[in-house]
Amino acid sequence: MSSFGTYLIGFVILIIGVGIAAFLLNVPTMWIGVGVVILVGLGVVRATSHGRMKDPPAT
After folding, report:
1. Tell me: the pLDDT tens digits for 21-50?
2. The total number of structural domains that make up the chain
3. Is-contact 10 47, C-beta < 8 A?
4. Residue 58: what pLDDT?
5. C-beta atoms surrounding 8 within 10 Å
6. Is 46 within the bounds of a domain?
7. CA–CA separation, 3 vs 7, rounded Å?
8. Do 41 and 13 touch, CB atoms closer than 8 A?
9. Residue 4 or 42, more confident
10. Domain-located, residue 56
């Protein structure tokens, strides 16, 4: 599995854990949804930036 996939799987597990914790702390469902959407976006951006190959130096 690529590092991109591994990173996304780990981030999804983190998001699920944070969502469950927020639910148990009686955070309103709407705000849990907003937080999940934001975290998914951040996870994709970070996974893409970590998985991107560096451009070779110009000759």
Report:
1. 999 999 999 999 999 999 888 888 887 776
2. 1
3. no
4. 72
5. 19
6. yes
7. 6
8. no
9. 42
10. no
Any domain includes 59: no
- Where are the alpha helices (H) located in 1-59, listed in sequence order? 3-24, 29-51
Residue 1 near residue 51, CB atoms below 8 Å: no
Rounded distance, CA 5 to CA 24, Å?
29
Question: What pLDDT score was predicted for residue 46?
Answer: 82
Cα gap 10→37, rounded to integer Å: 16
Which residue's structure tokens are 């000759």? Answer: 59
| 10-30 per-residue burial string, b: 16 or more CB within 10 A, e: under 16 | ebeeebeeebeebeeeeeeee
Q: How many CA atoms lie within 13 A of 32 on its CB side?
A: 15
